[in-house]
Please model this.
Amino acid sequence: MSYFMRAKMTKFLSLIGLLMSCAIVTAKGFPDFPYSKEMDVLIVANDMQVNGIRMRAFQFKTSKDEAHIVDFYKGEWGEEMTDVLFGDWRILSHRDGDYLLTVQIEQGDHQLTHGTMGITPAFKLAEQSDRKLAKLQKSVGKDFPMLPSSQVISDIRSEDLGQDSQTLMFSNKQSIRQNVNFYLRKMMSDGWQLLGSNAEQAAELGAFALNKGEQKMNLSFVRDQGVTYGVAVTLK
Model:
C-alpha cells in the first residue's frame, strides 16, 4: 500500500471504529463483499489489523453517481442497511453474521465517485471478550519507542504483496523538535540510517525517512493546540 493510500485509509479506519462493537475473534474467513459491476474495486489490504482487530479493506471508484452506489446496496441489503452521514462521508453498513460490512462514499463534486469498503468481525462475541480486548489494546503500539506520556491513537498493521507494514499514529505534549531529536537518537542508536536530510533539516521539516537493511520508515509530525501528532509508517 502506498504512503498516500495509507494516509487516506486512516480516516476511514477511524470511522469504522465508531461503528464497531469490538470483540476479540479468531476469524475463520471473511464473507464476500458484494459490489456493482460498475465499480472498479482494488484490494487495499487482504488481511489487516487495526488496534488488534482483524479487517479487510478495499477502495473503489466508478463513473456512476453516489445514488447508484446507494441503490445497489439497498438492493443487496434491504432494510438491514444503515445509511448515515459523517463529515465528508456517506457510510452504508450491514451486518452479515459475525461481520460488519461498511461502504464509505466520499462526498464532494468529483468526476468519479470513489470511497472505501471494509469488513470487520465486529459481532462475534466470546467469553471474557471485554477482558481480552482490554489486554490486547494495552499492547497496541508497545513495540515502538515512545516519549513519556505519549498516547497511541491507532496501530494499523497489514501484509501487502508479501511486505509487512505498520502505520502508527500517536500524540504527546512535547514539541516537534523534541520528538524529532528523540526519534533520531533512538532509531540511529538501533542501527537505522537517516536518508536525504540532516538532523537540523528533519527538525525544521518535522519529517524524515530512515532505513535499516530492507526496512524503511517515515516519521512525520504536526502540532495543533499544544499537542504534537506523529505518524510512523514502517515497511518490513
